[in-house]
Amino acid sequence: MQIGTGETTYEWVGGWAQVPDTPASRDGWSHHGAVYTDNNEVIAFHMGDPTMLVFDRDGKLLRSWDTDLNDAHGMALAADDSGQYLWTADPGAKRQANLGYEYPDGPRKGRFVKWSLDGKLMMELARPDISAYESGVYSPTSVTVFEERSGGNGDIWASDGYGESLIHRYSREGEYLSTIDGTEGSAGHFDCPHCVWVDYRHDEPELYIADRGNAQMQVYDLEGNFKRSFGKDFLNTPTAIATHDGLLFVAELRSRITIIDSSDQFVGYLGPDDTAFEREGWPNRRDDDGNLQRPDTLREGVFNSPHGIAADSDGNLYVAEWLIGGRFTKLARV
């Protein structure tokens, strides 16, 4: 099945990722990101187990490593003089099947963690010692790096999207530098800044912030100064970002991928389902007893709940959805 039009036409490849069939893969509530490496590998996280999964472009599972994360909710690949590495944002809690898909009791233990691509823990960022966390929640959702190989200084931008809706800036050594909250500009306080991403498409790199609760994108320079916002007329739940050939591909939780050009203008949607989020129990379903189950309305060609997205060097897209058992789809560029 093909979706899209013109140069953004794709073959829908369902069941692409060869995740071993286990109770945890069937019952875990998938809530992760995805990245594509310079080694032509796709990295994602297991639906239920605290395990990183590495696939080739055909979906073959090449290797995995166990972690101490609750989830790799947001994932970012970056490189410096020592090579490539992976950053993960862990919200500090994960819905559990044995709890009726509720979160465990107790405080969230959110984390930003840097890994080598063979699973060695390299760095962890300390939670900023600021007044917002005297009683507030710290629940990270996304992280990005102003890469040195692209002319950056190695700064790390880390989003507390599920906590206090703040974005923190750290040095390449992990030293806390500053915080932005959206009130620096005209677009308002962030409301679940779910994803942060550095855009290198122009001469001056910029920080894109998927301000999901406000249904917009906010754009800052790499010193934390507000520049502009856009998207209120065509975005609904911007959640994750990938890029290829000058285009942005924005995973929107409410059931579509939105394509945006280099001038922040709307291009089109991929696989939209405008009614999915209205179904009882979305992104899952409720059975006759009120229990959450994997939805039985999933079908090829339309999305249910895109949460993570990555693009490879040929423009193929890899989309991870948020639901029980997960759904990890490849859109092969035609």
What features would you describe in this structure?
- By secondary structure, the protein is mostly beta strands.
- The chain has two domains: 121 residues, no CATH class; 169 residues, 6 Propeller (Neuraminidase), CATH 2.120.10.
- Helices cover 1% and strands 43% of the residues.
- The strands form eight sheets. It has a five-stranded antiparallel sheet, with no helix packed on it. The protein has a four-stranded antiparallel sheet with strand order 4-5-6-7, with no helix packed on it. The chain has a four-stranded antiparallel sheet with strand order 8-9-10-11, with no helix packed on it.
- A hairpin with a 5-residue loop joins strand 10 and strand 11.
Quick take:
This protein is mostly beta strands and about 325 residues long. The chain has one helix spanning about 25; strands at about 1-5, 10-15, 30, 35, 40-45, 50-55, 60-65, 75-80, 85-90, 110-115, 120-125, 140-145, 155-160, 165-170, 175-180, 195-200, 205-210, 215-220, 225-230, 240-245, 245-250, 255-260, 265-270, 285, 290-295, 305-310, 315-320, 325, 325-334.
Within the largest sheet, what's the order of strands? 1-2-29-27-26
Tally of separate helices: 1
Helix content: under 10%
The main pleated sheet reads as: 5 strands, antiparallel
Q: Tell me the domain tally.
A: 2
Mean pLDDT: 97
- Tell me, what's the shape? globular
The assigned CATH architecture of the largest domain is 6 Propeller
Topology, number of strands: 29
Specify Rg, calculated over alpha carbons: 19 Å
User: Per DSSP, what share of the residues sits in E-state strands of 2 or more residues?
Assistant: 35-45%
